[in-house]
């Protein structure tokens, strides 16, 4: 006879069902950069200093006395990494638990549906954020892509690049942001339909200021609440690749003024937009080799991956790259750079029309606990909701991305 369910054995069943490896497999299988990056899961304390050397001592001269009197020491910078937080929730009604109390398998099937959704939602937030600039930007609105910014239903929003449609889901609530110097607008935009071929969203605009414009970018509500991110102007999301190796003049990052040596402190921006894609990648690899880097993995969106595969034609070489943390691998193309083979991997989370050519041993995802993990410090994986006949499962992430040698990595513009 099946054991009846109560809250204690529900919690035990969930612990057995969501073992660490099970969660890792769920998290990593469709998120290559998240899967392949080094992990450090003991990011305690207030912050984590990441020292970087960007210059050598220059007390040198052909004249002994002149060299001895020079006063230039080794150039060091220290990125002081801080954590950001991110959360996701699953709710299971009391009626559902009671209705399945004679069949633990039936309960787990329903619980899995809700909890898997919460884990996957937070996973995507982390995976997308690892390519981002810390603002939480999910996409830009195309010029003319918001024809009606007034309150109401059936309002269409066309994304600047259809590839970024992977960042959006039905039911998601968005905010409009004019620029990082501005707080989000009063408007909310609730998605009711997604066209994944055209990049057109349909939704409802509420609390409209009537000011939302097609020059805005969009974020998920709660990810950006004031100019710069939080009330103190700090990013609320992971400082990802766009923060570490930006295209333009680099902003200060984790206390470091990076204009002192733009390349060594903010990576190599390479404009390959006017070149055939394979030539752009080889050009960026050569630049990195000149700077001392040894890139081994390059991430790009699926459209650009297909363009590269077609461009290589009969010269295409297929390879595979695997995660050390879970038994998961990804199909890759392989090109030869000045420092050896570079594996090219398609990632749905990647910024459209950009390739990130990375030396992977310079990158670490630092977190306090697994990224993400079910929050159960009190031993309870399910908590009674105070105002509903329901029980809640909470999933969380505390951490940030770091790089100890930005100059060994490149952002390659492909279009």
- Please identify the top-level CATH class of the largest domain: Alpha Beta
The Rg value, from CA coordinates, equals 24 Å
User: How many strand elements?
Assistant: 21
Strand order of the largest sheet: 11-21-16-12-15-14-13
Q: How many domains make up the 3D coordinates?
A: 3
Average pLDDT, all residues: 92
Distance between the termini: 63 Å
Q: How many helical elements?
A: 10
Strand portion = 25-35%
Fraction of residues in helices? 10-25%
- So what's the overall shape? globular
Q: Structural class, from secondary structure content?
A: alpha+beta
Summarize this structure as a short list of keywords or feature phrases.
415 residues, 3 domains, Major capsid protein gp5 fold, 7-stranded mixed β-sheet, single chain, alpha+beta, 23% helix, 6-stranded mixed β-sheet
């Amino acid at each position: 006879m099946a054991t009846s369910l109560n809250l204690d054995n529900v919690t035990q069943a969930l612990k057995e069902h969501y073992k660490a490896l099970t969660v890792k497999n769920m998290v990593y299988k469709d998120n290559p950069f998240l899967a392949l990056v080094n992990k450090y899961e003991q990011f305690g304390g207030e912050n984590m200093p990441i020292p970087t050397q960007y210059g050598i001592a220059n007390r040198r001269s052909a004249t002994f006395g002149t060299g001895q009197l020079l006063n230039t020491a080794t150039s060091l910078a220290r990125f002081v990494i801080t954590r950001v937080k991110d959360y996701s929730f699953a709710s299971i009604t009391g009626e559902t638990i009671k209705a399945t109390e004679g069949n633990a398998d039936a309960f787990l099937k329903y619980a899995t549906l809700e909890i898997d959704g919460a884990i996957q939602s937070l996973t995507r937030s982390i995976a997308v954020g690892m390519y981002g600039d810390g603002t939480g930007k999910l996409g830009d609105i195309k010029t003319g892509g918001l024809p009606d910014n007034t309150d109401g239903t059936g309002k269409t929003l066309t994304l600047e690049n259809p590839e970024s449609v992977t960042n959006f889901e039905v039911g998601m609530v968005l905010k409009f942001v004019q620029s990082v110097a501005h707080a989000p607008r009063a408007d909310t935009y609730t998605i009711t339909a997604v066209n994944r071929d055209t990049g057109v969203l349909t939704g409802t605009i509420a609390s409209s200021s009537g000011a939302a414009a097609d020059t805005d970018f969009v974020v998920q509500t709660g990810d950006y609440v004031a100019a710069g991110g939080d009330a103190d102007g700090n990013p609320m999301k992971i400082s990802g690749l766009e923060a570490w190796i930006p295209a333009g003049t680099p902003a200060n990052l984790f206390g470091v003024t990076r204009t002192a040596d733009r390349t060594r402190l903010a990576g190599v921006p390479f404009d390959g937009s006017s070149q055939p894609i394979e030539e752009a990648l080889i050009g960026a690899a050569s630049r990195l080799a000149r700077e001392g880097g040894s890139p081994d993995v390059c991430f790009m969106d699926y459209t650009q991956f297909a363009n590269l595969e077609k461009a290589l034609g009969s010269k295409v070489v297929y390879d595979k790259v695997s995660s050390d943390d879970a038994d998961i691998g990804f199909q890759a193309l392989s090109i030869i750079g000045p420092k050896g083979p570079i594996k090219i991997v398609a990632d749905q989370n990647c910024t459209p029309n950009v390739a990130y050519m990375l030396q992977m041993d310079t990158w670490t995802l630092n977190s306090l606990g697994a990224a993400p993990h079910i929050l159960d410090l009190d031993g309870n994986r399910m908590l009674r909701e105070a105002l509903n006949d329901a029980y809640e499962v909470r999933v969380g992430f505390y951490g940030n991305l770091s790089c100890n040698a930005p100059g060994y990595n490149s952002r390659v513009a492909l279009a």
